[in-house]
Amino acid sequence: MTTTPMTAIEAEDRRQYRTTRRRDLAVDLSMALATILAALAIGFLVMLATGNDPVRAYEVMLTGPLDRSFRVGRWLEDATTLTLLGLSVAIPFRARQISLGAESQLYAGALAAAAVAIFLPLPAVAAVIVPMVAAAMAGAGMGLVPGSMKARLGANEIVATLMLNAIAVRVYDYLVNGPLKEPGSSAVHSKSIQEDSALTPLSEWFGIPMGRANVGLGLMLVTAVALWLLITRTPLGYRIRMTGSNPDFAAYGGIKVPRVIEWSFVIGGAVAGLAGAHLVQGVYGRLEPGLAGSLAFEGIVVALLARNNPLVVVVAGLFYSYLRAGGDIMEQQTDVGTEIVVVIQAVIVLLVTAQALPDLLKRRIARRQVGVR
Protein backbone atom coordinates (compact mmCIF):
# COMPACT_ATOMS: atom_id res chain seq x y z
CA MET A 1 0.00 0.00 0.00
CA THR A 2 1.53 3.32 -1.06
CA THR A 3 1.00 6.67 0.63
CA THR A 4 0.55 9.95 -1.18
CA PRO A 5 3.60 12.18 -0.67
CA MET A 6 2.97 15.32 1.32
CA THR A 7 2.85 18.49 -0.75
CA ALA A 8 4.91 21.56 0.12
CA ILE A 9 1.78 23.42 1.22
CA GLU A 10 0.70 20.56 3.50
CA ALA A 11 4.19 20.34 4.99
CA GLU A 12 4.20 24.09 5.64
CA ASP A 13 0.75 23.92 7.25
CA ARG A 14 1.86 21.10 9.52
CA ARG A 15 5.02 23.00 10.49
CA GLN A 16 3.00 26.10 11.31
CA TYR A 17 0.54 24.05 13.36
CA ARG A 18 3.33 22.51 15.43
CA THR A 19 4.93 25.90 15.92
CA THR A 20 1.61 27.34 17.08
CA ARG A 21 1.06 24.45 19.48
CA ARG A 22 4.50 24.88 21.03
CA ARG A 23 3.94 28.63 21.31
CA ASP A 24 0.58 28.11 23.00
CA LEU A 25 2.15 25.74 25.52
CA ALA A 26 4.90 28.28 26.25
CA VAL A 27 2.32 31.05 26.66
CA ASP A 28 0.21 28.94 29.04
CA LEU A 29 3.27 28.11 31.16
CA SER A 30 4.42 31.74 31.17
CA MET A 31 0.99 33.04 32.17
CA ALA A 32 0.74 30.48 34.98
CA LEU A 33 4.19 31.43 36.26
CA ALA A 34 3.46 35.15 36.03
CA THR A 35 0.19 34.66 37.93
CA ILE A 36 1.94 32.69 40.66
CA LEU A 37 4.69 35.29 41.07
CA ALA A 38 2.18 38.15 41.16
CA ALA A 39 0.08 36.37 43.80
CA LEU A 40 3.15 35.69 45.93
CA ALA A 41 4.20 39.34 45.63
CA ILE A 42 0.78 40.54 46.78
CA GLY A 43 0.88 38.08 49.67
CA PHE A 44 4.28 39.49 50.60
CA LEU A 45 2.85 43.02 50.72
CA VAL A 46 -0.14 41.88 52.80
CA MET A 47 2.15 40.30 55.40
CA LEU A 48 4.33 43.41 55.42
CA ALA A 49 1.31 45.65 55.95
CA THR A 50 0.05 43.54 58.87
CA GLY A 51 3.37 43.73 60.74
CA ASN A 52 4.57 40.18 60.07
CA ASP A 53 7.95 39.11 58.77
CA PRO A 54 7.22 38.09 55.16
CA VAL A 55 10.79 36.98 54.45
CA ARG A 56 10.78 34.46 57.29
CA ALA A 57 7.23 33.33 56.49
CA TYR A 58 8.00 32.74 52.81
CA GLU A 59 11.26 31.01 53.67
CA VAL A 60 9.38 28.50 55.81
CA MET A 61 6.48 28.14 53.36
CA LEU A 62 8.69 27.63 50.28
CA THR A 63 11.31 25.36 51.85
CA GLY A 64 9.29 23.54 54.53
CA PRO A 65 7.66 20.90 52.27
CA LEU A 66 11.12 19.77 51.11
CA ASP A 67 12.76 19.62 54.54
CA ARG A 68 11.85 15.99 55.20
CA SER A 69 10.92 13.06 53.02
CA PHE A 70 7.64 12.63 54.90
CA ARG A 71 6.68 16.20 54.01
CA VAL A 72 7.58 15.58 50.37
CA GLY A 73 5.28 12.57 50.43
CA ARG A 74 2.48 14.63 51.91
CA TRP A 75 2.91 17.17 49.12
CA LEU A 76 2.90 14.55 46.35
CA GLU A 77 -0.10 12.77 47.87
CA ASP A 78 -2.09 15.99 47.83
CA ALA A 79 -0.81 16.96 44.36
CA THR A 80 -1.93 13.66 42.85
CA THR A 81 -5.56 14.11 43.85
CA LEU A 82 -5.63 17.84 43.17
CA THR A 83 -4.14 17.50 39.70
CA LEU A 84 -6.56 14.75 38.71
CA LEU A 85 -9.42 16.99 39.79
CA GLY A 86 -7.94 19.89 37.82
CA LEU A 87 -7.74 17.67 34.74
CA SER A 88 -11.33 16.54 35.23
CA VAL A 89 -12.51 20.16 35.11
CA ALA A 90 -10.19 21.27 32.29
CA ILE A 91 -11.81 19.04 29.65
CA PRO A 92 -15.37 20.43 29.98
CA PHE A 93 -13.86 23.90 30.24
CA ARG A 94 -12.17 23.36 26.87
CA ALA A 95 -15.64 22.79 25.44
CA ARG A 96 -16.79 26.01 27.17
CA GLN A 97 -18.85 24.11 29.73
CA ILE A 98 -18.60 25.39 33.30
CA SER A 99 -18.68 22.06 35.09
CA LEU A 100 -18.59 22.26 38.89
CA GLY A 101 -19.43 18.58 39.32
CA ALA A 102 -16.01 17.14 40.18
CA GLU A 103 -17.14 16.61 43.77
CA SER A 104 -20.08 14.34 42.89
CA GLN A 105 -17.96 12.47 40.33
CA LEU A 106 -15.17 11.95 42.87
CA TYR A 107 -17.56 10.55 45.48
CA ALA A 108 -19.20 8.27 42.91
CA GLY A 109 -15.77 6.99 41.93
CA ALA A 110 -14.76 6.49 45.56
CA LEU A 111 -17.91 4.48 46.29
CA ALA A 112 -17.43 2.30 43.20
CA ALA A 113 -13.74 1.68 43.93
CA ALA A 114 -14.45 0.84 47.56
CA ALA A 115 -17.32 -1.52 46.72
CA VAL A 116 -15.08 -3.54 44.40
CA ALA A 117 -11.95 -3.35 46.57
CA ILE A 118 -13.80 -4.41 49.73
CA PHE A 119 -16.31 -6.99 48.59
CA LEU A 120 -14.99 -8.51 45.33
CA PRO A 121 -12.12 -11.03 45.64
CA LEU A 122 -9.73 -10.61 42.71
CA PRO A 123 -6.22 -11.69 41.69
CA ALA A 124 -3.37 -9.39 42.67
CA VAL A 125 -3.07 -7.18 39.58
CA ALA A 126 -6.80 -7.15 38.82
CA ALA A 127 -7.48 -6.17 42.44
CA VAL A 128 -5.81 -2.82 41.71
CA ILE A 129 -7.03 -2.22 38.17
CA VAL A 130 -10.69 -3.29 38.38
CA PRO A 131 -11.62 -0.87 41.23
CA MET A 132 -10.03 1.97 39.28
CA VAL A 133 -11.94 1.05 36.14
CA ALA A 134 -15.14 0.89 38.19
CA ALA A 135 -14.36 4.31 39.67
CA ALA A 136 -13.76 5.82 36.22
CA MET A 137 -17.03 4.36 34.93
CA ALA A 138 -18.98 5.63 37.94
CA GLY A 139 -17.47 9.10 37.57
CA ALA A 140 -18.20 9.08 33.84
CA GLY A 141 -21.82 8.11 34.50
CA MET A 142 -22.14 10.89 37.04
CA GLY A 143 -20.70 13.32 34.49
CA LEU A 144 -23.07 12.13 31.78
CA VAL A 145 -26.11 13.28 33.77
CA PRO A 146 -25.43 17.05 33.72
CA GLY A 147 -23.82 16.71 30.29
CA SER A 148 -26.99 15.25 28.81
CA MET A 149 -29.14 17.76 30.66
CA LYS A 150 -27.16 20.61 29.11
CA ALA A 151 -26.79 19.09 25.63
CA ARG A 152 -30.29 17.67 25.19
CA LEU A 153 -32.50 19.75 27.48
CA GLY A 154 -30.69 23.08 27.55
CA ALA A 155 -30.28 23.00 31.35
CA ASN A 156 -27.76 25.29 33.01
CA GLU A 157 -24.67 23.16 33.67
CA ILE A 158 -23.65 25.19 36.72
CA VAL A 159 -26.95 24.59 38.50
CA ALA A 160 -27.11 20.96 37.37
CA THR A 161 -23.62 20.08 38.61
CA LEU A 162 -24.01 21.93 41.91
CA MET A 163 -27.31 20.21 42.69
CA LEU A 164 -25.84 16.85 41.74
CA ASN A 165 -22.94 17.53 44.12
CA ALA A 166 -25.39 18.01 46.98
CA ILE A 167 -27.20 14.77 46.15
CA ALA A 168 -24.00 12.74 45.80
CA VAL A 169 -22.52 14.01 49.06
CA ARG A 170 -25.72 13.20 50.99
CA VAL A 171 -25.92 9.71 49.51
CA TYR A 172 -22.24 9.14 50.29
CA ASP A 173 -22.68 10.28 53.91
CA TYR A 174 -25.72 8.03 54.33
CA LEU A 175 -23.88 4.97 53.02
CA VAL A 176 -20.74 5.57 55.10
CA ASN A 177 -22.78 6.18 58.25
CA GLY A 178 -25.17 3.29 57.53
CA PRO A 179 -24.92 0.27 55.23
CA LEU A 180 -21.16 0.55 54.59
CA LYS A 181 -20.10 1.46 58.14
CA GLU A 182 -17.69 -1.07 59.63
CA PRO A 183 -19.62 -3.22 62.13
CA GLY A 184 -18.53 -2.83 65.73
CA SER A 185 -16.50 0.31 65.11
CA SER A 186 -17.17 3.45 67.14
CA ALA A 187 -15.58 5.58 64.41
CA VAL A 188 -17.45 6.35 61.22
CA HIS A 189 -15.76 4.67 58.27
CA SER A 190 -16.17 1.63 56.06
CA LYS A 191 -14.25 -1.60 56.18
CA SER A 192 -10.68 -1.46 54.92
CA ILE A 193 -10.05 -2.46 51.33
CA GLN A 194 -8.31 -5.74 50.54
CA GLU A 195 -4.54 -5.56 50.82
CA ASP A 196 -4.06 -6.48 47.16
CA SER A 197 -6.18 -3.49 46.08
CA ALA A 198 -3.96 -0.90 47.75
CA LEU A 199 -1.73 1.26 45.56
CA THR A 200 1.96 0.66 46.23
CA PRO A 201 3.43 3.40 48.47
CA LEU A 202 6.41 5.31 47.12
CA SER A 203 8.19 4.49 50.37
CA GLU A 204 8.62 0.90 49.14
CA TRP A 205 10.24 2.12 45.93
CA PHE A 206 12.61 4.73 47.38
CA GLY A 207 13.28 3.16 50.75
CA ILE A 208 12.54 6.36 52.68
CA PRO A 209 9.41 7.37 54.61
CA MET A 210 7.09 9.24 52.24
CA GLY A 211 3.82 8.89 54.10
CA ARG A 212 0.82 7.95 51.96
CA ALA A 213 2.28 9.07 48.61
CA ASN A 214 1.86 6.22 46.15
CA VAL A 215 2.10 5.11 42.53
CA GLY A 216 -1.07 7.06 41.84
CA LEU A 217 1.38 9.87 41.08
CA GLY A 218 2.43 7.97 37.96
CA LEU A 219 -1.22 7.41 37.04
CA MET A 220 -1.79 11.16 37.29
CA LEU A 221 1.13 11.93 34.97
CA VAL A 222 0.00 9.32 32.43
CA THR A 223 -3.55 10.70 32.55
CA ALA A 224 -2.32 14.25 31.91
CA VAL A 225 -0.28 13.18 28.88
CA ALA A 226 -3.18 11.06 27.56
CA LEU A 227 -5.59 13.99 27.84
CA TRP A 228 -3.12 16.33 26.14
CA LEU A 229 -2.80 13.86 23.26
CA LEU A 230 -6.59 13.53 23.17
CA ILE A 231 -7.06 17.30 22.93
CA THR A 232 -4.27 17.98 20.43
CA ARG A 233 -4.03 14.83 18.29
CA THR A 234 -7.47 13.25 17.93
CA PRO A 235 -10.69 14.11 16.04
CA LEU A 236 -12.62 14.22 19.32
CA GLY A 237 -10.12 16.66 20.75
CA TYR A 238 -10.49 18.84 17.66
CA ARG A 239 -14.27 18.80 18.09
CA ILE A 240 -13.94 19.76 21.75
CA ARG A 241 -11.63 22.64 20.90
CA MET A 242 -13.85 23.86 18.08
CA THR A 243 -16.96 23.65 20.26
CA GLY A 244 -15.20 25.68 22.94
CA SER A 245 -13.95 28.27 20.47
CA ASN A 246 -17.22 28.80 18.59
CA PRO A 247 -20.10 26.35 18.99
CA ASP A 248 -22.12 27.96 16.19
CA PHE A 249 -19.26 27.65 13.73
CA ALA A 250 -18.62 24.08 14.92
CA ALA A 251 -22.24 23.16 14.26
CA TYR A 252 -22.09 24.85 10.85
CA GLY A 253 -19.01 22.75 10.06
CA GLY A 254 -20.87 19.51 10.76
CA ILE A 255 -19.78 18.89 14.35
CA LYS A 256 -22.53 17.45 16.55
CA VAL A 257 -22.13 19.92 19.39
CA PRO A 258 -24.54 18.21 21.87
CA ARG A 259 -22.62 14.96 21.56
CA VAL A 260 -19.30 16.76 22.05
CA ILE A 261 -20.64 18.43 25.19
CA GLU A 262 -21.70 15.04 26.56
CA TRP A 263 -18.28 13.55 25.82
CA SER A 264 -16.49 16.40 27.56
CA PHE A 265 -18.52 15.78 30.73
CA VAL A 266 -18.04 12.02 30.49
CA ILE A 267 -14.26 12.27 30.12
CA GLY A 268 -14.01 14.80 32.93
CA GLY A 269 -16.18 12.62 35.15
CA ALA A 270 -14.01 9.57 34.50
CA VAL A 271 -10.88 11.46 35.57
CA ALA A 272 -12.61 12.73 38.73
CA GLY A 273 -13.64 9.15 39.45
CA LEU A 274 -9.95 8.16 39.28
CA ALA A 275 -9.25 10.84 41.90
CA GLY A 276 -11.79 9.11 44.14
CA ALA A 277 -10.12 5.76 43.53
CA HIS A 278 -6.77 7.28 44.48
CA LEU A 279 -8.17 8.47 47.80
CA VAL A 280 -9.67 5.07 48.56
CA GLN A 281 -6.90 2.78 47.28
CA GLY A 282 -3.88 4.94 47.93
CA VAL A 283 -4.56 7.41 50.74
CA TYR A 284 -7.18 6.23 53.24
CA GLY A 285 -7.62 2.57 52.36
CA ARG A 286 -11.36 2.88 53.07
CA LEU A 287 -14.29 5.28 52.87
CA GLU A 288 -14.29 8.11 55.38
CA PRO A 289 -16.57 11.11 55.94
CA GLY A 290 -15.46 14.24 54.11
CA LEU A 291 -13.17 12.23 51.90
CA ALA A 292 -12.29 15.05 49.50
CA GLY A 293 -12.58 18.10 51.73
CA SER A 294 -12.28 21.24 49.58
CA LEU A 295 -10.10 19.61 46.93
CA ALA A 296 -12.88 19.37 44.35
CA PHE A 297 -13.39 23.12 44.14
CA GLU A 298 -9.68 23.87 44.39
CA GLY A 299 -9.25 21.69 41.32
CA ILE A 300 -11.22 24.36 39.45
CA VAL A 301 -8.60 26.95 40.44
CA VAL A 302 -5.84 24.63 39.22
CA ALA A 303 -7.55 24.23 35.83
CA LEU A 304 -8.07 27.97 35.48
CA LEU A 305 -4.48 28.70 36.46
CA ALA A 306 -3.30 26.26 33.79
CA ARG A 307 -5.64 27.79 31.17
CA ASN A 308 -7.12 24.29 30.76
CA ASN A 309 -3.93 22.88 29.22
CA PRO A 310 -3.54 19.30 30.57
CA LEU A 311 0.26 19.49 30.69
CA VAL A 312 0.22 22.84 32.50
CA VAL A 313 -2.41 21.48 34.91
CA VAL A 314 0.31 19.18 36.28
CA VAL A 315 2.57 22.15 36.98
CA ALA A 316 -0.28 24.16 38.51
CA GLY A 317 -1.41 21.21 40.63
CA LEU A 318 2.09 20.63 41.97
CA PHE A 319 2.46 24.31 42.84
CA TYR A 320 -0.98 24.65 44.40
CA SER A 321 -0.55 21.59 46.60
CA TYR A 322 2.95 22.79 47.51
CA LEU A 323 1.36 26.05 48.61
CA ARG A 324 -1.14 24.17 50.76
CA ALA A 325 1.56 22.05 52.38
CA GLY A 326 3.84 25.04 52.92
CA GLY A 327 1.00 27.04 54.46
CA ASP A 328 0.44 24.39 57.12
CA ILE A 329 4.15 24.36 58.00
CA MET A 330 4.28 28.17 58.00
CA GLU A 331 1.45 28.32 60.52
CA GLN A 332 3.28 25.86 62.80
CA GLN A 333 6.67 27.59 62.71
CA THR A 334 5.82 31.31 62.41
CA ASP A 335 3.26 33.79 63.67
CA VAL A 336 1.62 33.93 60.23
CA GLY A 337 -1.58 31.90 59.89
CA THR A 338 -2.77 29.95 56.87
CA GLU A 339 -5.06 32.88 56.06
CA ILE A 340 -2.25 34.29 53.92
CA VAL A 341 -2.45 31.17 51.77
CA VAL A 342 -6.16 31.86 51.29
CA VAL A 343 -5.26 35.41 50.25
CA ILE A 344 -2.75 34.10 47.70
CA GLN A 345 -5.31 31.62 46.36
CA ALA A 346 -7.92 34.37 46.03
CA VAL A 347 -5.45 36.61 44.19
CA ILE A 348 -4.72 33.75 41.78
CA VAL A 349 -8.43 33.42 41.00
CA LEU A 350 -8.78 37.17 40.46
CA LEU A 351 -5.72 37.31 38.20
CA VAL A 352 -6.88 34.33 36.17
CA THR A 353 -10.27 35.98 35.75
CA ALA A 354 -8.60 39.20 34.67
CA GLN A 355 -6.64 37.27 32.04
CA ALA A 356 -9.89 35.89 30.64
CA LEU A 357 -11.56 39.32 30.28
CA PRO A 358 -9.56 40.53 27.24
CA ASP A 359 -10.32 37.32 25.33
CA LEU A 360 -14.01 37.63 26.22
CA LEU A 361 -14.13 41.24 25.06
CA LYS A 362 -12.35 40.40 21.81
CA ARG A 363 -14.86 37.63 21.04
CA ARG A 364 -17.81 39.91 21.73
CA ILE A 365 -16.40 42.72 19.59
CA ALA A 366 -15.72 40.27 16.74
CA ARG A 367 -19.30 38.97 16.92
CA ARG A 368 -20.74 42.51 16.83
CA GLN A 369 -18.58 43.35 13.82
CA VAL A 370 -19.81 40.26 12.01
CA GLY A 371 -23.38 41.20 12.88
CA VAL A 372 -22.92 44.72 11.51
CA ARG A 373 -21.52 43.39 8.28
Automatic annotation (TrEMBL):
The chain crosses the membrane at residues 25-49, 105-122, 153-172, 213-231, 295-320, 340-361. The keyword Membrane applies. It is found in: Cell membrane. Pfam families: BPD_transp_2. InterPro entries: ABC_transp_permease. It is a multi-pass membrane protein. Its main location: membrane. Keywords: Cell membrane, Membrane, Transmembrane, Transmembrane helix. GO terms for cellular component: plasma membrane. One of its GO terms (molecular function) is transmembrane transporter activity. This is ABC transporter permease. It comes from Streptomyces flaveus.
